[in-house]
Amino acid sequence: MDNFIAEIQALCVNAGGKILLAILVYFIGKIIISKLVRMTENLKAVKVLDPTVKTFTVSFVRILLYVILVISIISVLGVPMASVVAVLASAGLAVGMALQGALGNLAGGIMLMIFRPFNVDEFISAAGESGNVKEITLFYTVLTTPDQRRVTIPNGSLMNANVVNFSREDTRRVDLVFTCDRLEDFKKVQQIITETLAKNEKVLKDPAPFVSLQGATNEALEFTVRPYCRNADYWDVNFSVIQEVSAALGEAGIRSPKLRVVQEDK
């Protein structure tokens, strides 16, 4: 009996020592991983990378280091790797089904890096959300919306969705529709709008702004107004054109000048 108790005590001491060592390895490993990730971010070769590739690379390094840490903890606990492999193989189907979404997101992240439909800091609309791309990781893409919401979208969903990139082209077109009283001289109204756009320094001359009567109702004439601008000036031109054209129509005595804006995501 004494021998049995001694064996149990020795087993507990041995197991307890391994558990304590595993916990120690975990905490030390986390500290080392944090430092290695920071070192990776500060490497010259990484700093010169495109921000999109940089965030993806750092995310990949972090996950790889944690995988190494988990394998190290299993070894410290004395679990034979052959047994671990056998268990994973026997549960392969269940694990595969459970990780199907994650693997799809990983594949999506890799495809995003290859085809590059958008980069960090670009404004996009995809998967029902719109915002500036904050970061692209292995599994998720993070957007910051204009009202400062942080949206996390799985990469798999992005690869299967239509992505509208508002920042990729150098120029943007502002789409507006102005209306006035049905009895007004449409040529006069068209001239006033055209002259007002010509005075706006941020409206591009090439391509030239488009101003035309698009239709009429029983009460109003409708004019399509489409000035072009630099991408960075989109909102400035949008609001300044609304103010300037409305003021010019009012000063010219045009009756009931109104505005209908064609809504866009950005």
Short description:
The protein has nine helices and eleven strands. The protein is α+β, with helices and mostly antiparallel strands.
Folded structure, characterized:
- There is one protein chain.
- The protein has 266 residues and is an alpha+beta fold.
- It folds into three domains: 2-90, no CATH class; 107-165, SH3 type barrels; 171-261, Alpha-Beta Plaits (2-Layer Sandwich), CATH 3.30.70.
- It is built from nine helices and eleven strands.
- The strands form three sheets. It has a five-stranded antiparallel beta sheet with strand order 4-3-2-1-5. Strands 8-9-7-11 form a four-stranded antiparallel beta sheet, with helices on one face.
- The longest helix has 41 residues, at 2-42.
- The model has no long low-confidence stretch (mean pLDDT 84).
Largest sheet composition: 5 strands, antiparallel
Order of helices and strands: HHHHHHEEEEHEEEHEEEHE
What distance lies between the first and last C-alpha atoms, to the nearest angstrom? 79 Å
Number of domains: 3
- Total count of strands: 11
CA-atom Rg in angstroms: 31 Å
Labels describing this entry:
266 residues, alpha+beta, Alpha-Beta Plaits, five-stranded antiparallel sheet, elongated
Topology:
Elements: H1 2-42, H2 44-47, H3 51-76, H4 81-90, H5 92-98, H6 100-115, E1 123-126, E2 129-136, E3 140-144, E4 150-154, H7 155-159, E5 164-165, E6 171-173, E7 176-181, H8 186-199, E8 210-216, E9 220-226, E10 228-230, H9 234-251, E11 258-261
